[in-house]
Amino acid sequence: MTVVSFVGAGPGDKDLITLKGYRRLAAADVVIYAGSLVNPALLDYCQDSAQKYDSAGMDLGQIITCMTEAIAKDQTVVRLQTGDFSIYGSIREQIEELKKAGVGYECIPGVSSFLGAASSMGVEYTVPEVAQSVIITRMAGRTPVPDREALKSLAQHQTSMVIFLSVQGVRKVVAQLLEGGYPETTPAAVIYKATWPEEKKVQGTLADIAEKVHAAGIRRTALIMVGEFLGDEYNYSHLYDANFSHMYRQKSVTTDGQD
User: Per the confidence metrics, is the pTM higher than 0.90?
Assistant: First the structure.
């Protein structure tokens, strides 16, 4: 019996799907894709005979029925999810229903939009001695978040932060971050549709990013990036320092025999 392949579609650019994901997509008989977020150009990789279903208008029961009926016919099924499905991908509920139906599955990771955004900005979330942790979160909305994970609480760490699904409330986001401890001077950026052809970037600080975002007309499909990793302060790592030894390279020695 065939299995359902959950495939991370990547952040937008159709070339940023993994090779393994591409192969599954190209061979699929049935593709269920998140039409509200997945770049439709990815469907160009499908064979002409593939049946394609946009899950934007489907509920969980309809998605599972589509999968199980195809599997019963021994068809290959791809569930194409935006970015990487391990972050706000809602695959747990699909997997649990497939288990109940006795249907096997595999998960093929993708490139998350928060990684695509960093690449577009040319930044590193973990800058030596500036920030060594990344918080990925979202603001509470129709789907609540645990009280202990409120933005105000997370902001106390003042580390690199990427905020999903919240740009529509960017002013509230900024207010909670400031209340939690980030200074107004903290660098911030908002990336609309990272890696898509229509990508748009807005940069500023917590003092002005909300106004800039509204002026740019960004209301959805964007990430909020906050932290000193976006700023001018940086330090070189020890990894490539000629005076730092590790198991693959010994530090250079001076001509007088002293280190």
Answer: no
